[in-house]
Specification:
With 366 residues, this protein is α+β, with helices and mostly antiparallel strands. The chain contains five helices and 20 strands. The strands form four sheets. Strands 7, 9, 10, 17, 18, 19 and 20 form a seven-stranded antiparallel β-sheet that branches. Helix 2 runs antiparallel to helix 3. It is elongated.
Length: 366
């Protein structure tokens, strides 16, 4: 029960109540009054200096947003994603037409010229279907339709062969014994990378501004799983097998004398002497499945506090592993700029060393 001593000033039927909280006004009879004041509506009972007052239908005060007390809210709001990190910047190479070295200029020109040639077989297929359909659905003997269908198949096959011959470029290599071992070391190192359980092309990256909402990571990345394989570019006939690395819209083919860069809009090439590879190891906060060959070096939390521990205000604050990955950054003065990531450390350095050895051997025997 709320008991207190107070004074009041009466003006006509109204009584003005004076208190530290402010001025209120009330009306009623002796011993019972109804009024309103700084703390809301109330009923007032008592006389002789001893009183009881009860607030009626008091409305809860709204706490303004973004105040210091909000920081202690047990259920903090998640800020918009773009408020916690910079926009992701694409990691992309320059114009494919500018990726040409003087040593491969003639070859690249021929490749681009033949790639632009139109294919004939689609037109042959359309004509074959139309002729066969016309004979089959009109008053012609049944055997005529079979002959037309067979002739169409032969014509389409001939057109496909014509397209392959007209669009293909032949690249034959006479590899000397001194260079064979060097190029084989490139294949061996590439095979180690291809066996990694995790292989990604790094497409974009953005700096983190508020690490609390990103498990303490310094940056965010967008990456895509890729496969590393031994295969040759389409319409290139050669007597060697080339390691290939897909990097977005482009694919890198490691020939004995150059790295061919192939994309839908054209072909480029970079000599080994102008190719730079930077190999680095880095800690990656893995919010997905950790590859079986990756080394987990630490753990963090989905939401971290200033000390790096779990922010206990978030109920969905799960523990996240931190894995040690390896990064290869391919660059050239002509505009090549691509990055790939591997789940196993120690396998990228032999590949980078083999690239240097191939370039040195080409300078010696080129």
């Amino acid at each position: 029960m709320a008991l207190y001593i107070r004074k009041a000033v009466k003006v006509g039927p109204f009584r003005f109540n004076l208190s530290k909280s402010g001025i209120g006004v009330s009306a009623g009879v002796t011993g019972l009054r109804l009024g309103t004041g700084p703390r809301g509506n109330y009923i007032h009972l008592g006389r002789g200096g001893l009183y009881y007052r009860k607030t009626l239908l008091a409305k809860p005060r709204k706490r303004p947003a973004n105040t210091v007390s909000d920081r202690n809210d047990p259920k903090p709001r998640h800020p918009p994603a773009n408020d916690t990190h910079d926009s992701l910047q694409e990691i992309d190479s320059g114009n494919i037409t500018e990726m040409v070295d003087s040593t491969s200029e003639d070859l690249v020109e021929e490749l681009n010229y033949k790639r632009k040639k139109a294919r004939v077989w689609p037109y042959a297929a359309i004509c074959g279907v139309l002729v066969t359909s016309y004979i089959a659905f009109n008053e012609f003997p049944t055997w005529a339709a079979y002959i037309a269908a067979a002739g169409s198949v032969v014509a389409i096959g001939a057109a496909v062969y014509r397209d392959v011959v007209s669009k293909s470029v032949v690249m034959l290599y006479d590899i000397e014994d001194q260079f064979q071992a060097t190029y084989q070391s490139l294949h061996d190192a590439f095979g180690l990378m291809a066996k990694c359980k995790g292989r990604w092309h790094m497409e974009a990256e953005g700096r983190v501004r508020d690490k609390k909402y990103h498990a303490g990571a310094d940056s965010l990345v967008r990456k895509k799983t890729i496969g590393l394989s031994l295969r040759n570019p389409p319409y290139v006939k050669t007597n060697v097998t080339t390691p290939s690395i897909p990097v977005g819209k482009q694919t890198l083919y490691f020939f004995p004398d150059m790295v061919m860069i192939l994309e839908p809009n054209g072909v480029g090439a970079v000599s080994y002497n102008n190719l730079s590879i930077e190999v680095t190891s880095h800690r990656f906060v893995e919010d997905g499945t950790v590859p079986s060959d990756a080394k987990v070096v630490d753990h963090t939390w989905k939401y971290v506090n200033k000390r790096g521990g779990p922010d206990r205000r978030f109920k969905d604050n799960t523990q996240i592993p931190v894995a040690l990955y390896e990064d290869l950054h391919f660059t050239s003065p002509t505009g090549l700029n691509e990055r790939i990531e591997l789940s196993k450390t120690g396998v990228a350095a032999p590949f980078a060393k083999a690239i240097q050895d191939v370039g040195a051997t080409n300078r010696t025997y080129g």
